[in-house]
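Re: [help] complex structure
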Amino acid sequence: MTHPIPPGTRDILPDEMRELRKLSAALLEAFERFGYGEVSTPTIEYEEVLARGDERGAPVAYRFFDEGGELLAMRSDMTIPIARLVANRYGAAEPPFRLCYLATAYRAVRPQRGQLREFTQAGVELVGVPAPEGTAEVIEVLAAALDAAGLTRAVIGLGNANLYPEVLARYGVDEAGRAAVLDRLAAHDRVGLEDEVNALGLGEAERETLLGLAELRGGPEVLGRAVELGGEVVEQALGRVRAAYELLRERGVAERVQLDLGLLRDLGYYTGAIVEVYDPALGHILGGGGRYDELMGRFGRPLPAAGFALHLERLHVAQAEEERQQATRADTSSASRPGTQRPDTSSASRPGVSGSKGDEA
Amino acid sequence: MTGVAGPIRARTGGKLKLAVARGAMFGRTLDLLDRIGVDTSEARSDSRSLVFETEALTLVTMRPSDVPTYVEAGAADVGITGKDVLLEQSDRVVYELLDLRYGRCRMVLAGRKGDDSLGESARRLGVMRIATKYPRIANRYFDETGRAAEIVEVKGSVELAPLVGLADGIVDLVETGRTLEENNLEVREEIVTSTARLVANRVSHKLRAREIDDLMARMREAR
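Output below.
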């Protein structure tokens, strides 16, 4: 006889738990090294407090009434609880505030997708330091956290939520047209983007700029190509991205960063820089973050802010996969050059994928 | 991103993996691949294997509705499937990169010829009963047009449903209209047009940007 647990939840047994503890400790140690103090907030909050965030990004999934008839909700991320905490507890204190967390969050699952209803996030919030300094600091902490997790190949994608709105505004596109373009961009729908951009009735150069920008991702050369594409208008709109990248270079983390001018996440409270984390060992993003300079204002303490959150369970999968691939690479390089013979090291555990190469080109 | 997406799939490097939908579009997809210099002779001659190695790409063949699943999880870097599949699975997060323009078909609302049970049900019972393999597209369409519909999901031949009274009408994909004709059904409303699309995994789109941009450019040229 088995006793069911809700879909999207899970038990963790000692072998896995031991590794998760080690990973968590390494992450928190990295956060602390940069002066970020760990905080904990309640798993449940008043629904109206969480609703001050933005429903488009991480919608609250679980609501219930307490014995007094108050509507409570499970937090869907830590950014909003920490914004509340800063407003409540540091109301009179002098910013900046550097806080970090390792905490569970809760989201709705769709049936049969293997999604987690309860999952663990590790992240930081930097409140009171504006762009570009605050952005660069948060990205440096993120790079250090990835190193601490052993994910030295992980890449940090950096975009800016203001880039497209600004270019569109300079082209004289009205509110409705801007919203339609941004909606397609956030949906990762390049075909729809083309349709919406065509519908704006702009000149050919403007049209090509809007479509071309979305495809630009890579190193600093991307900035030059963007200006070639869009001239003065893009040059001015890129000011913030350029400034942040310059600081990242000074901090020695620029080579971990991929500039991505078409990057847009659907979290409604992002106002400037947007960050996503990728690792070649995993098909899903490891986490993300960015600037949300307007969020604190909704809690009566208008302060610039930025942060990121990493999915602990995904970091762990990536970590395990990286270790496995490193072992494979060490094997193949000591044997012979890949290409002349086909290493079958990893394909055995991947039924149905025959003849896939185990090496990393 | 509304949820924390699902089955986490470890990836390996090597050649780009392209998920190719078998079914109605398969031949046209192989034609396109031929035009960009991918050798598809093996995929054409061997109908039993699922994975085919070519010089530039690994082709992974599957049913059209599985393509978003494999691409979202990163088990394939890129994929080709119909817009109808993407609309039905709009919660899957993939980059939709290019309209490949072939495999054109229409998603329609159809009813029995010379029979107004669709309208009559809506009028007298307040709700139309609709059979479909595309429950989300159908629901969204009736919501958007301000009508109430009871959606019955079926897996096999949808045309059967109105013939034996399971439903007043159907929402289904129509290419030539012959199947409708043969079953004495007719198009009442057109919902959306669908064509083949090139999609990419979120991580591959960033970490293998050059290869994917190159593939996209060649397909844009050859479509």
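Chain B has ten helices and eleven strands.
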